[in-house]
Amino acid sequence: MKKVYANAAEALDGLLFDGMFIASGGFGLCGIPELLLDAIKEAGTKDLTFASNNAGVDDFGIGILLQTRQVKKMISSYVGENAEFMRQYLSGELELEFNPQGTLAERMRAGGCGIPGFYTKTGVGTVIAEGKEHKDFDGETYIMEKGIFADLSIVKAWKADETGNLVFRKTARNFNPPAAMCGKVCVAEVEEIVPTGSIDPDHIHLPGIYVHRLIQGEHEKRIEQRTTRAA
After folding, report:
1. Which is nearest to 31 in space by CA: 137, 186, 188?
2. Among candidate residues 7, 65, 53, the one with its CA nearest the CA of residue 29
3. What is the C-alpha to C-alpha distance for residues 98 and 91, in angstroms, rounded to an integer?
4. What pairing do the DSSP bridges indicate for beta strands 117-120 and 140-146?
5. Does the model's pTM come out above 0.85?
6. How crowded is residue 18: how many other Cβ atoms within 10 Å of its Cβ?
7. Could you tell me the pLDDT band of residue 198, with boundaries at 50, 70 and 90?
8. Phi-psi region of 177 (alpha: psi -120 to 50; beta: other; left: phi over 0)
9. Rounded CA gap, 33 and 201, in Å?
10. What is the tens place of the pLDDT at every residue in 3-37?
C-alpha cells in the first residue's frame, strides 16, 4: 500500500469534501500540520468542522481557514491568540463547542479506540455539563462525553518511516497522537522520512497502522510569544 506522497495536495486528493469533520493535531503553533492546512485552503473546501485544541493565530494554522470563511464549527479548548477566531465567535458567525483540554484529548483517543463515550468529573457543575448525561459513581457525579470520530485526521510529526510509523519531537507530540487515531483516514506531514526498519520500535510514538498517507516537507518554526530582555 502506497503511503508516501509527493506533496500535501496529492496526499489530500480524493479525501476532501464540503461539510466534513477534521481532527487536527497541534497546540498553539507547536506541532501543527501547516502544509496540510495550506492545501485545504487552496482546495477551497468549506463548511468544515475542526476538532483542535485551538486555531493557531490569524495568519497561521487553522487561522488561515477562518480568514477565508472555510470553517463552520470549532471543537476547541482555547480561543486566545487568534483575534479573528474570537471575533467570529462573538459575532455568531462561527459555532464553538468548548472542551476542557484533557476531555478533548480523551474524546479523540476514545474515538480511535472505538469507544463511543466515557464518563468524567471534569466540567461537572459548569456550562460544559449542560445538556449532558449525568451519572453517579461511588457518590461522585460524572458527565458523559462522546468519542470523536472524524472524517479526516491531519497531524505533524518529526520523523516517519515509509510504513507511517511516527516519532514526535518533545512537546510537539501534544494532541497529535490522539488526533491521528480518531479519523477514518489519517494524513501526516513530517520533517524526515527514513527507511523502514531504521526506527527503534521502542522509539515509535504512533504505529503506522493509524497513518494512511504521508508527506515530507519544509516547515516554518514560529515562536508564538517572543520574550526577550535587554543585553
Report:
1. 188
2. 53
3. 16
4. antiparallel
5. yes
6. 11
7. very high
8. alpha
9. 24
10. 999 999 999 999 999 999 999 999 989 999 999 99
Q: Which amino acid is at 104?
A: L
Q: 24: which strand partners?
A: 154
Which residues, in sequence order, are bridge partners of residue 215? 189
Q: Please report where in the chains the cell 515562536 appears, as a residue.
A: 223
Cell numbers linked to 81: 491568540
SS3 string, the chain, reads: CCCECCCHHHHHCCCCCCCCEEEECCECCECCCHHHHHHHHHHCCCCEEEECCCCCECCECCHHHHHCCCEEEEEECCCCCCHHHHHHHHCCCCEEEECCHHHHHHHHHHHHCCCCEEEECCCCCCHHHCCCCEEEECCEEEEEEECCCEEEEEEEEEEEECCCCEECCHHHHCCHHHHHHCEEEEEEEEEEEECCCCCCHHHCCECHHHCCEEEECCCCCCCCCCCCCCC
Q: How many other CB atoms sit within 10 Å of the CB of residue 102? A: 11
